[in-house]
Amino acid sequence: MAANFWTSSHYKQLLDQEEVDVVHPLDKEKGVTLEDFKLIKMHMANYIGRLGQNVKVRQRVVATAITYMRRVYTRKAMTEYDPRLVAPTSLYLAAKAEESTVQARLLVFYVRKLNPDEKYRYEIKDILEMEMKILEALNYYLVVFHPYRALSQLLQDANLNDLTQLSWGIVNDTYKMDLILIYPPHLIALACIYIASVHKDKETTAWFEELRVDMNVVKNISMEILDFYDSHRTITEDRITTTFNKLALRS
Amino acid sequence: MSEVPNVFSKKVADRYLKREVLGEGTYGVVSKAIDTKTGQIVAIKKIRLGKHKEGVNFTALREIKLLKELKDPHIIELIDAFPHKGNLHLVFEFMETDLEAVIRDRNIVLSLADIKSFLQMTLKGLAFCHKKWVLHRDMKPNNLLIGDKGQLKLADFGLARIFGSPDRKFTHQVFARWYRAPELLFGSKQYGPGVDVWAAACIFAELLLRRPFLQGSSDIDQLGKIFAAFGTPKPAQWPDMVYLPDYVEYQFVPAPPLRSLFPMASDDALDLLSKMFTYDPKTRISVQQALEHRYFTSGPLPTEPAKLPRPHPKRESLNTRVSDFNQQEGPTVLSPPRKSRRVMPQRDGFEENAHQVEKSDEHVNDIRQATGERMSWNEHAPMSIDFSVFGSRPPPRPTINSADKSRLKRKLDLEFQQPDQD
Ligand SMILES: Nc1ncnc2c1ncn2[C@@H]1O[C@H](COP(=O)(O)OP(=O)(O)O)[C@@H](O)[C@H]1O
Ligand SMILES: [Mg+2]
User: Fold this and answer.
1) Which domains does chain A have, with CATH numbers?
2) Which residue in A49, A80, A197, B35 has a CA-CA distance of 20 to 30 Å to B422?
């Protein structure tokens, strides 16, 4: 991992799981549980991913947008910052920050196209207003490191290039969780490589041992990812709708 | 919902007491202000909103993004940022003057020790950027601000970029023309920190000459001026040159002795200068190496910042720049092989536009990239083909089922039993 990660604002802002898993008091009042909280964030990560595909931005932009969205909710309440507006705005801001601007007009077009549900329909002016609020919520820290680059380098180093597709997909899936707020990206990459290599029966023990990393952390991340794959199967649209109703936004 | 007044930001704005306007930037007005909480004098840049309803200005966002990561004694400090009446405001430490004002002030005598000090501070700021994988891309005396204790700091990061990924393509439309490295003028899109070194060399030369060194009136003329000063490069000297996108062959001219261009510079100064002005960016000296050059340890030693000469407190006469000297003819273009670009008739370096960098250029490119030709722009691994859980597309990879999962978990448990660390 590039030396600058350790001096970056990203590194300094990493949180513990317990700090991330705090439901804002205002949301709690509305009956939002920790599980609901995680569910909405996951749903919004998916939404950002879909929007990203449609407006055609790089995966990196999507990943940054999801990170922004997740960071916002470590500080702000969903009842005050409607996730259905924060999601497209995060993508809008991330695209700028990652040097591949998406026009607000285009974004709003796809927001409408993808959502028959009126509650998702925000206008350009809403996005521009929210952009400023997100910037403030992020305390203007915009640089985000992702596991992707470390992943390519590590796979090459381990001579595991045939695991690229599988491990890349797993990295994408980690954005449905809060891992990016908690762990250094190269450790997330390692966990994904680990899962992929075990899954494909590749012998990597020696290679992992040679890396001077805390394998306990890698193991924990791997377990969390696997737990996630387990639990996310049981999520239904109904469940998401019910959760959103609790927030009772834009009645 | 979002109609709730933003009480917090109003408070932040009230903290600063606005005073006179200091200057007009490309995307906003800069005013002096007092931080009533600390008594500190600051400079506040009010970012103009984009014309086309595109929210926070793209260039401003770049500056915020990078300055939040770059904290160094030789880089301008972004103290704070806040929205006020729909505009974003950036709070910087206040700086008294800039290097351009120093160079232009005819009442100032710059000793060799003073020049060394200014260059050293410039390179220190640049070294920090490069260590953090940031290219400044707009190095020029006007963007090197000078504080009340003589400290020089890099400012104006509106064109700066992170250069981490090796295969990323950049726009070559960066820097004011007179500070542009030859690889940029030949259209290179995969350049590196060497472009900042070249610009720093131009600033070094400008400190010695007290006028911009290479005042080209067009890109072609700029290269002509460069070649007139250092000789037309031979392919052996710079093997990649002929493959650059906008390469055109120039008539061969030999290099005059460097000493003849800088009669008053020391041998060490000339040696460093020639290493910074190396044609091939691959062999051009790095900023770190430049800082370790004996020029900085041989006498006279760099002047202490507090003892450096400063211009009269009035910050003006910047617009009435005289571009004098500079009559020397450059070599002419022989054959434009691919691009048929016309060679401009020699104008005498009086071009207003020479200092205007098209700041939105890369931005425009990116929009194009995003809507069409984005494949070449992708990171090398096959991302976004796999939105497995993200998209509605069928995942092109095997999914992990429950049985797999428990097997994996067991295996994980087993294999991590013997943690092998200190
Ligand atoms: N920190 C500062 N202290 C004092 N004056 C400043 C400061 N920053 C900018 N200025 C003034 O504002 C002008 C424009 O700012 P700058 O950031 O260079 O914008 P631009 O992108 O247009 O070059 C500068 O030329 C300078 O006169
Ligand atoms: Mg400037």
Assistant:
1) 14-143+236-247 (1.10.472.10), 147-231 (1.10.472.10)
2) A197
Q: How confident is the model at residue B398 (pLDDT cuts 50, 70, 90)?
A: very low
User: CB pairs under 8 A, 24+ apart, for A47-51?
Assistant: A47/A84, A47/A87, A47/A88, A47/A114, A48/A87, A48/A88, A48/A90, A48/A91, A49/A172, A49/A175, A49/B387, A49/B390, A49/B391, A50/A114, A50/B390, A50/B391, A50/B392, A51/A87, A51/A88, A51/A91, A51/A107, A51/A110, A51/A111, A51/A114
> What string of DSSP letters covers B354-381?
GG---TTHHHHHHHHHHHS--GGGS-SS
The tokens describing B14, both together, are: 């009230």
Q: What pLDDT, on the 0 to 100 scale, is given for residue A231?
A: 81
Return the residue whose CA atom lies nearest to atom 14 of ligand 1.
B25
Share of chain A above pLDDT 70, in %: 98
Separation of alpha carbons A150 and A238, rounded Å: 38
CB-nearest partner of B405 from A95, A97, A230: A230
Q: Which residue of A has its CA nearest to B383?
A: A59
> If you measure from the C-alpha of residue B156 to the centroid of ligand 2, how many angstroms do you get, rounded to a whole number?
5
Q: What is the pLDDT of residue A192?
A: 95
pLDDT in tens, B90-144: 999 999 999 999 999 999 999 999 999 999 999 999 999 999 889 999 999 999 9
Domain annotation for chain B: domains and CATH numbers: 16-93 (3.30.200.20), 97-306 (1.10.510.10)
Q: Which residue has the tokens 């507090």?
A: B306
Q: Whose CA is closest to atom 15 on ligand 1?
A: B25
Asked if B396 reaches chain A (Cβ–Cβ under 8 Å), the answer is yes
What interface predicted TM-score (ipTM) does this complex get? 0.90
Instruction: Tell me: is residue B330 an annotated ligand-binding position.
Output: no
B387 and A55 within 8 Å at the Cβ level: the answer is no
Evaluate whether B105 touches B312 at the Cβ level (below 8 Å): yes
**Nearest protein CA to atom 26 of ligand 1, as residue:** B23
**Residues of B tagged active-site:** 138
Which of B153, B156, B358 to mutate to test ligand 1, by most ligand atoms within 8 A of the CB atom?
A: B156
Best mutation target among A5, A6, A91, A100 (most B Cβ atoms within 10 Å) is A100
Closest atom, ligand 1, to C-alpha of B143:
18
Q: What is the pLDDT of residue B2?
A: 40
Q: What is the mean pLDDT of residues B318-327?
A: 37
